Hints:
15 helices, 3 domains, four-stranded parallel beta sheet, Rossmann fold, globular, 298 residues, binds 1,3-dihydroxyacetonephosphate, 16% strand
Amino acid sequence: MSLKQKILDLKKQKDAIILAHNYQRQEIQKIADYIGDSLGLSQKVSQLNKDLVVFCGVKFMAESAAILSPNKKILLPNKQSKCPMARMVTPKGLKELKEKNPKAAIVSYVNTTAKIKALSDICCTSSNAIKVTKSLDKQKIIFVPDKNLANYVNKRVEKQIIPWKGYCPTHDNITEQEVKKAKEKNPKAIVTAHPECKEEVLNQADHISSTGGMVDLAKETKKSKILVGTELDLVNRLNRENKDKEFIPLSQNAFCQNMKKITLKNTYEALKKEKFEINITTETRKKAKKALEKMLEV
Ligand code: 13P
Ligand code: SF4
């Protein structure tokens, strides 16, 4: 029996659910019950009547699911599947920055650890970062950890943004030159880019959004060629699901190696042995939940 079939059988037997982020390998996406963006998947967990969840993504995503659904067992198939950007901000560093700016509110992108969320006033995603920042009374905003997303917000709100200097190695890798070249080669195409990209890349985009927004755009657009500034496996998903259109990556270097640490083999093992369970202390979870829920209210 194929590994794929074994996973599907075991999933049924255990009444489990498999979620996959848009950047997962195609073979993982194909066994998933739901594929989506980081926040959408975490919210999905709380809406479903299933207690065992295999989260194929990076750790902060599985943590968000565990924060929002504390009574469910959330498994991450590979402990090493972590987002490097989420680890660029530490609780110690954030506390120090807050001490220097006591009147500032802390907005943390969902790409952060549970401990960072617990120190934050509110969380945001790439699709609601502007709305979330505008919703706050405070004029000064500490924005962690992505400097590119912070800059994107800074250009669109009348507030003082103090950015953390983190970045996503996958998106920050995409260059202005690559976008220019791709546009020259495909003059009729539109460009969509993730706000984790550099400003000079975003300046050339027709559409800027989270991966979930790109999936929607792909279905809705009347254009037949779309240049995509995000991770390669989302581009593969778009081509797989929209056969009448062509999706071209802006850069062949936009590859998140941490997302690929999840394989069919470790997903099977995770389901079989119910490992590796996400555990967050009650105190951290409660504080982090407040920041996530405040975002959901906005
Ligand atoms: P999305 O929330 O848009 O899925 O993005 C997550 C991510 O890790 C982007 O690099
Ligand atoms: Fe983190 Fe970037 Fe990978 Fe997203 S693509 S998980 S932000 S390293």
